């Protein structure tokens, strides 16, 4: 899989870092509004299952759940349902960037399970999947660097990041409803 120079040594460490990246306000907002926003922007509903740090399927689903919640926080602001908050927006962007850095390591061979929506192309087209993750890393990194100072800047950051969701899901996620 990809060798990330800046990636944490252990993805369990990465996962433990994520809540610290999310400001308290963002976690609260995500908890209160995440499910509705996530549904509104057309991604799977949020789960409330505790992630298991030693289980890569559980971990990667939680990483994506956090990604969806992060987009949900920004979607609410974009729709005028919440005030722009630079700290919450930066927390959302940093959360997605942290997820992007560790994501490719969560797909060992044979981890296509009944609970997982990981598509078979992740393994049959590993180079394509790694390229999609590399783009997600680059775009979330650029969005973090942008550090939006107002809702307009945030929409620009959402544009940079948002195209990745559909692109990767189309090829590498098989929805099971
Ligand atoms: C590089 C590929 C890739 C990118 C980019 C990506 N996803 Fe995903 N996403 C996946 C895969 C693969 C799954 C299925 C994981 C599984 O079930 O094992 C998934 C699952 C999900 C889920 C369901 C999680 C759950 O609880 O089961 C949500 C929500 C989600 N993605 C949101 C997003 C959003 C929002 C973005 C963009 C900001 C995004 N994803 C970008 C590959 C990606």
Helix percent band: 55-70%
| Reported CATH architecture | Up-down Bundle
Structural class: mainly alpha
| Overall outline | elongated
Radius of gyration: 15 Å
CATH topology: Four Helix Bundle (Hemerythrin (Met), subunit A)
Q: Are any ligands bound, and if so which?
A: heme C
Tally of individual domains: 1
Unreliable stretches covering 5 or more consecutive residues:
1-11, 22-47
> Biggest β-sheet, characterized?
none
> Roughly what fraction of the amino acids lie in strands?
under 5%
User: What distance lies between the first and last C-alpha atoms, to the nearest angstrom?
Assistant: 29 Å
Tell me the total number of β-strands: 0
CATH C-level class: Mainly Alpha
- Give the number of helices: 7
Name the helix and strand elements from N-terminus to C-terminus, one letter apiece: HHHHHHH
Mean pLDDT: 79
CATH H level, superfamily name: Cytochrome c/b562
Explain this structure:
One of its GO terms (biological process) is electron transport chain. It comes from Albimonas donghaensis. InterPro entries: Cyt_c/b562, Cyt_c_II. One of its GO terms (molecular function) is electron transfer activity. It holds the Pfam family Cytochrom_C_2. The chain is mainly α and 177 residues long. It has a single domain (11-172), classed as Cytochrome c/b562 (Four Helix Bundle (Hemerythrin (Met), subunit A)), CATH 1.20.120. 66% of the residues lie in helices and 0% in strands. The protein has 7 helices and no strands. It has helices spanning 11-21, 24-40, 56-78, 86-103, 121-124, 126-146, 151-172. Helix 2 packs across helix 3 (56-78). The longest helix has 23 residues, at 56-78. Mean pLDDT is 79; it is low at 1-11 and 22-47. Residues 38, 43-44, 47, 57, 60-61, 64-65, 67-68, 71, 96, 116-118, 132-133, 136, 161, 164-165, 168-169, 172-173 line the site of heme C.
